[in-house]
Design brief:
Layout (H helix, E strand, L loop, with lengths): L5 H7 L25 H8 L14 H14 L3 E5 L2 H10 L7 E5 L4 H13 L3 E5 L5 H5 L6 E7 L11 H10 L4 E4 L4 H4 L9 E5 L13 E5 L13 H4 L10 H5 L3 H14 L5 H11 L2 H20 L4 E5 L9 H7 L7 E6 L3 H9 L5 E2 L9 E3 L11 H6 L7 E4 L5 H16 L2
Parallel strand pairs: 2-3, 2-4, 4-5, 5-6, 10-11
Antiparallel strand pairs: 1-7, 6-7, 8-9, 9-12, 11-12
The structure holds pyridoxal-5'-phosphate.
């Protein structure tokens, strides 16, 4: 499939039925798989043969969907996880252990910040957060001899910074570690981080990939480009014998598939955050129209951002598609066809006006979600970041008046009309 254009891959990659098999990807709703002899099964447990035996490790429905996302990103191997959180955790934990250090952009999803600042810390992995707009030299200062990975988001949620992927790849590779990029917001339709030097890509498939707000899910894709063997002492989990698999060495036995094989055979085996085959099936239905939906999200968001930008009641608008945006030129370089459908903005009058405005919306719903077909809003200061003071909010890069607006694929005139009537009510006060 790799010779086809990305639109064709969205529709047809992954499931390739043979003669007489179902045209549509079936849901293999089975925990187990049958074998004829004890020896056949034993060889699977030794990773001597490949084949299905238990859905926590692998399932044909999940594998077909992982393969589709792998082809969309241009990787060599991929796996699904139960959520984006699980994907980011596994992606890091697969190559970090107690005593190790990681570096992460400070502009990341709140759940990711908690994961790397608090939870992995309890497991002995320390994380240094860096300003994604820092110079290469400044980034370099965050690295230590025991640093194992650099992590960032291609478009940060909710700050909407666009990552200078080449700069981050340079910083990572200059210190002999891989760059992991969470590519949830632009999706591979708008940005393919491997083409700019990223080594591993993660996704919360919950967002645009699913696209309909039906299933929480995640994915990890490996480019196969990072040479673990060159840093064998740094990544013993990949380059030294695994006693839990009779001493196999992942890099020797699986080559470019080493990273994903280890994450599946070892991390998923032991931690078990699998995606259900039912959810993988629904995710695949979403992926079949990803190439149609993403451009519409971006086109609508561009028009809404321009509308808001010109409105006297709007204090500020953050959307990288606007020419005066700080990230406009980075967006033009890394995602020239568009960024994503998420906009943030604030109203004249601040926090209280933001809340009042949101309550007046009719078509646009208040929900804790982004990046699905239906336009929605969230006020982080009142919702996801509710426990913080105004000072803490500013420190976290979330202005107290910030409204996160996720533009759907409805008719943009109806979206703008709803915003307009809500803004008018406020004006009448
Ligand atoms: C939502 C999100 C996550 C977490 O994904 P879940 O599927 O909710 O676990 C991680 N990264 C980014 C950029 C996200 O938007």
């Amino acid at each position: 499939m790799s010779d086809y254009q990305i639109e064709t891959k969205c529709v047809q990659s992954g499931w390739r039925p043979k003669k007489g098999e179902p045209r549509v990807l079936p849901i293999y709703q089975s925990t187990t798989f049958k074998y004829d002899t004890s020896d056949q099964m034993g060889r699977l447990f030794d990773l001597e043969d490949s084949g299905y035996f238990y859905t926590r490790l692998q399932n044909p429905t999940n594998d077909a969907v992982a393969e589709k996302i792998c082809e969309l990103e241009g990787g060599v191997a991929a796996m699904l996880t139960s959520s984006g959180q699980a994907a980011n955790y596994y992606a890091v934990f697969n190559i970090c252990e107690a005593g190790d250090h990681m570096v992460c952009s400070s502009a990341v999803y709140g759940g990711t910040f908690n994961l790397f600042s608090a939870t992995v810390k309890k497991q002995g992995i320390e994380c240094t957060f860096v300003d994604p707009d820092a110079s290469l030299e400044e980034l370099g200062q965050a690295f230590r001899p025991n640093t194992k990975v650099l992590f960032a988001e291609s478009i940060a949620n909710p700050a909407l910074n666009v990552l200078d992927i080449e700069k981050f790849a340079k910083a990572a590779h200059g210190h002999g570690v891989p760059l992991i990029v969470d590519n949830t917001f632009p999706t591979p339709i708008n940005c393919r981080p491997f083409e700019w030097g990223a080594d591993i890509v993660t996704h919360s498939t919950t967002k645009y990939m699913d696209g309909h707000a039906m299933c929480v899910g995640g994915c990890i894709v490996d480019s196969g480009n990072f040479d673990w063997g060159q840093y064998a002492d740094k990544y013993p989990g990949l380059t030294k014998p695994d006693p839990t698999y009779h001493g196999i060495v992942y890099t020797e036995k699986f080559g470019k598939g080493a990273y994903i094989t280890k994450a599946t055979a070892q991390i998923m085996r032991d931690l078990g955050s699998i995606q259900s085959p039912q959810n993988a099936f629904l995710l695949n239905v979403g992926l079949e129209t990803l190439h149609l939906r993403v451009p519409r999200h971006c086109e609508n968001a561009q028009k809404v951002a321009e509308y808001l930008n010109g409105h006297e009641k709007v204090a500020w608008v953050n959307f990288a598609g606007l020419k005066d945006n700080k990230y406009y030129s980075l967006a033009q370089k890394y995602m020239p066809n568009g960024t994503c459908g998420v906009i943030s903005f604030g109203l004249v009058g601040g926090r209280d006006v933001s809340v009042e405005f949101m309550d007046k919306l009719k078509l646009i719903a208040i929900v804790t979600h982004v990046a699905d077909a239906r336009t929605c809003v969230l006020h982080p200061a009142s919702h996801t970041h509710r426990q913080m003071t105004d000072e803490q909010l500013v420190e976290a890069g979330v202005a107290p008046d910030l409204i996160r607006l996720s533009i759907g694929i409805e008719n943009v005139q109806d979206i703008i009309a709803d915003l307009d009537q809500a803004l008018k009510t406020i004006e009448n006060k």
